[in-house]
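Local shape tokens:
==================
===
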Amino acid sequence: MNQSATLAVVGGDVRQAYLASLLRADGHTVRTYALERRPVEGCAAVSDPRAGFADVQAVILPLPIQHGDAQLNAPLSNAPHPLADILDAIPAGTLALAGSVPFWVHARAVQNDLRLLDYLSRDELAIRNAVPVSFGYRPVRRREQ
């Protein structure tokens, strides 16, 4: 039996847009936020995070979650989004998934009673992510020597 969920995919790069597309293809209801430059067919783009996150089972945030000084990592958005505002828009008790989460975001999640999981802290992802990253940096190091 396949159970569908209502999920929010927030910010990030093309990986987040691709994830939203895969989730939609699996039969889930998907709302996107801060992905205006990469609309995802079949997903509802929301402009108000508080309303858009109101009845979701989980909010999936990007890797890394933060860009610059406390902004949501959202290169596909048309505007900057303070990360604190995003966290404050997620209803208490909601599961929030994010990658490379700084301490202050964990603290804010506790304050807001969110169930925050840093998916980059899981060995399965950290190891698989480290391999391509290390190969990507190797040519740079060789040129510097």
Observations:
- The two ends are 56 Å apart (CA to CA).
- The first strand starts at residue 6 and ends at 10.
